Amino acid sequence: MDYYNESTKNILKKLDSNEKGISTKEATKRIEKYGQNVLKEEKKESNIKKFLTQFTEPLMILLIIAGVIAIIINDIIDGSVILFVVLLNAIIGYNQENKAENAMEQLKSMTTKKAIVLRDNKKQEINAENLVVGDILILEEGDQISADIRIIENLNLKVNESSLTGESLPVSKTDTIINNEDETNTTYDNLGYMNTEITMGRGKGVVIATGMNTKIGKIAEMIQNKESETPLQIKISKLGQTLGLLGILICAVIFVIQFLNGIPLVETFMTAVSLAVAAIPEGLPTILTLTLAFGMQRMAKSNAIVRKLLAVETLGSCTVICTDKTGTLTLNQLTVTDSYLTNEELSYKVAGFCNNGKIDNDKEIGDPTDISLLKYAKKNKYDLKENQKVKYERLYEIPLDSSRKRMTTITSIDNQEYVLVKGAPEILIDKCTQINKDGKITQLNNIEKNQIKDKLNQFTNNALRVLLLAYKTTSDYTKLSDEEIEDNLIFVGLVGMMDPPRDAAKKAIKTCSDAKINVKMITGDHPETASAIAKKVNIKNSELTLTGYEIDQLSDEELSEKIKEVNVYARVFPEQKVRIVNALKENDEIVSMTGDGVNDAPALKNANIGVAMGSGTDVAKQSSDMILQDDNFATIVTAVKEGRTIFENIKRFIRFQLSTNIAAILTILTTTIISAPIPFNPVQLLWINIIMDGPPAQSLGVEPSPQNIMKKSPQKEDILSKPTIIHIVLISLVMAVGTLGLYLYELSVGTPIKLASTIAFTLFIMFQLFNVFNCKATHGFENKTLIISVIASFILQLCAIYIPVLQTIFGTVSIPLNYWVIMICIAATIIIAEEIIKVIEKRIID
C-alpha cells in the first residue's frame, strides 16, 4: 500500500485503527501475530567454525603441508616460520569475518528504547519493541521516531533524516496526501522513518511498519549478507593453486627420476621435499601482510584509515568510484555563492536580523540556511549583531513553515521598527510593491520584476537555493495583522546558496580520469543540483542523470547497460545504491563506494571496497573497509595511488620469487635428467628459500610509486599475465644456465665436487641478489631498505661458506678469491639479460 497518497481516514481503516489508538489487548494480539519491533540478526556461525574455515584456502593448505614437511626433515626454524605465517593470516581473516556482525550491533544500538503512544484512549509510555502496526505514535521535538509512520497530525514538524538519507538539512513534514507527480521523488514528506530524529515541532503518526519491515530493517537485512572475495584474494588463491600443483608435479617427477637412477631413497626424498618447500610460495602471505601493513601506515598519514588489509590493494584495482555528493565532493556547508542586491546594507540587515542562527566562537547553532546567511553578512563586514554601536531588539516573529515558505521578524534597530522578510522568491515577489536601489525607493514595475525573475532563473538553473530579501518600516506593528505585516514589502535582493564543491575535488577527478577510473556521483539530492555539482567538478556526462524512480523502472539487464554512460544518480535510496553497485560488478568493474549514513551501509558492504566518512555514522564505518578522516574525495585518490603501488610491489615480489623457484627447479631437473650430481643439498635449498623469502624480497614491498602509476589503466588481469610468465621463465633460464654452466665446467676440469657445489650454490645466491634490482620500481636508490638487505644477505652467504661451523651445517667449503671475479661477472649477466628482454618485449608490443 502506498501510504503517502492515501487519506488519513483510509489508512486508519485499512490498518484497523483510529485516531484514539488501538487497545492494549489488540496490540498484544498483533505482537503475537507479527512479532516485535526489533531488528533481527541472522544465525551466526560459531567462532570455532569461523576460525577453522580460514585454513581451508588452497594456499593455506599448501603452506601447512610445507611447514609440516620442513619440521619432519628437521628444518625447525623454517617450518615454524611457515606455520606462524599461516596462523597470523587466519587470525586476520577471522577478525574480518566479524565485520558484518559489528555493523549489525551498531545498527541495533541506534534504535530507541521507549515510545509514547495512544492506547486505550490515553497516552502511554511503552517499550519501543512493543510498537505494532496501527499504533498512534506521539511525536515531540527531540524524539527519535521508533517505527515507520504515516504522519496524521503536523504542527511545524521537521525531521533530521541524515542518518538514513545522508542529506544534512532537516525535512519539513506534512500530514496531507502527496500525489507522486514528480517521478524523481523517492522520499515522502508525510512519512516518518525509524531512527530519524524530530528537530522541531510536534505531531502524531500511525505506525505503518515495524522491525525488519521498516526502511532501516531492510538495511539491516542487506548488511548481513556475506562479503564477496576481493580481487587480490581471488588472484592469490588462483596463483597458490597453480604454483602448488606445478611444484608438487615437478618434485614428483624429480623424485621418480632420481629413484630410477639408483640414488638412495632417503636422499631422493629429502631433495624432493626440500625442492617442494622452495617451490611453494610460503613467503607470499608474509610479504603480502607486510606490504599491505606498510601501505596502511602511509595511508593513515594521508587521513585514510584502513580497517581491512586487503582493501588497500583492492583500491589499486578500482575501475569505478561511486561517491556521495554532500561532504565528499562538496564542503557540506551551505554557502551563499551568488547574489543580486539592489541595496547591500539593507540586504545584510535582513540576512543578519531575520535569522535564528548563532555563531559563538566558531560553534554554529541553528538551521544551515540561517548560518549561511550570518556568515554571508559577516564576510561582507555587516555583522550587526556584534556591532555594539547598533541598538537592536527583536519585537515579533512570524516563523517559517512549509506552507508559508517565508520567515518574518520585526526588529527595532536604532529605535526604528523594521519588518524583515526572507523566503521563497516565487511567493514574496508578488508581495513586493517597491524596490530600494542604493537608498532610492521607487515603485516596482514590470520591467524590474522581470529582471528579478531572470536573475532567479539564472540562479536556479545553476542549482542554487534562492531566497528573496525584503523589508519595510513601520511605526506600530501591534496594530497590524500578520497578513498586513507581510504586505507592501520593499525588494532589496536575491541570494543564491549551495553546498560548494571542494577545491581538491576537481583536481582529484582529473587524476581519476587520467588513471582510467570512472567517477559516478550518487546522491539523495535533486537531479538539477546533482548535475550542477557534477559539472563543476568535471564528472563526465554530467548532463545525463538517472533518478531512483527511473532505476526502479529498469530491469537488472537494462540497468547494467544504462549504467555504462550515466555518471550522475539523484534521489537514490539504499536498495537502489545496492542495485547500482551490483550492475557495475556485473559489468566486471571493481567498485569503490563512499558513504556516511546508515542508508549507505548495504552498498558499502556490497562494493569491492566500501569507504566511510570520518564524520559518518558508526554503522557506515563498521560496514566499510576504509574510513576517510577528512571526508575528502581527494583522499580516496591518494589511497588509489597507494593501492596501485602495493599491487605493483606484490607483482615485483612474485616475479622475484618465481624466477628463483623456476631457476632452482630447472637446475635440479637438468642435473637429474643428465645424471649429474645435484648441485644443491637439501639444507642449501632451504637456505636459498630463506634468502628468497627474506629481506631482499620483503624490501620490494616498500618500493616507492613509479611517477606514471596514475597514468595507467587499473590492473584487472591476473597477477601473472602471459607476458610476465614468459619474462620470468626467460630470466630463470639465464640463472639456471649460468649456474649449471659453471658447475658442470668445474666438474669437467676436476674440481672437487664439494667446492663445485659451493660455487654453484653461491653463484645461484648471487644471481638472486642481482636479480632483485631487476624487480625494482626505478633505477634509482630511493629504497634504502633494499640496499641494506642485499648487503646483509651477501654477508650471511659469506658466513655460510667461510665460517667452519656453518660449513659443516651447509656442506660448503671456502671458495678461493679468484673465483669471485668469475661468479660476479656471470651473476651480473642477469642485469644485461633483463635489459635485452625488455627491448625485445617493447618491439613486440610496438
Tell me what you see in this structure.
It contains 32 helices and 25 strands. It has 846 residues and is α/β, with parallel strands linked by helices. It has an eight-stranded mixed beta sheet, with helices on both faces. Strands 10, 13, 14, 15, 16, 17, 18 and 19 form an eight-stranded mixed beta sheet that branches. Strands 1, 2, 3, 4, 5, 6 and 7 form a seven-stranded antiparallel beta sheet that branches. The mean pLDDT is 84.
Offer a few descriptive terms.
8-stranded mixed sheet, alpha/beta, 846 residues
Could you provide a short overview of the structure?
The chain has 32 helices and 25 strands.
Topology (SSEs and partners):
Layout: H1 8-14, H2 24-34, H3 47-53, H4 58-72, H5 76-97, H6 99-109, E1 114-119, E2 122-127, E3 136-139, E4 148-160, H7 162-165, E5 171-172, E6 191-192, E7 197-209, H8 215-223, H9 231-260, H10 265-279, H11 283-301, E8 304-306, H12 309-317, E9 320-323, E10 335-341, H13 344-353, E11 358-360, E12 363-365, H14 368-379, E13 392-398, E14 406-413, E15 416-423, H15 425-428, E16 432-437, E17 440-443, H16 446-461, E18 465-474, H17 482-485, E19 489-498, H18 503-514, E20 518-522, H19 527-536, E21 545-547, H20 548-552, H21 556-562, E22 568-570, H22 574-586, E23 591-595, H23 601-606, E24 609-613, H24 618-623, E25 626-628, H25 633-673, H26 682-693, H27 695-699, H28 722-748, H29 753-774, H30 784-802, H31 804-810, H32 818-845
Parallel strand pairs: 9-20, 9-23, 16-19, 20-22, 21-22, 23-24, 24-25
Antiparallel strand pairs: 1-2, 1-3, 3-7, 4-5, 4-6, 4-7, 8-25, 10-19, 11-12, 13-14, 14-15, 15-18, 16-17, 18-19
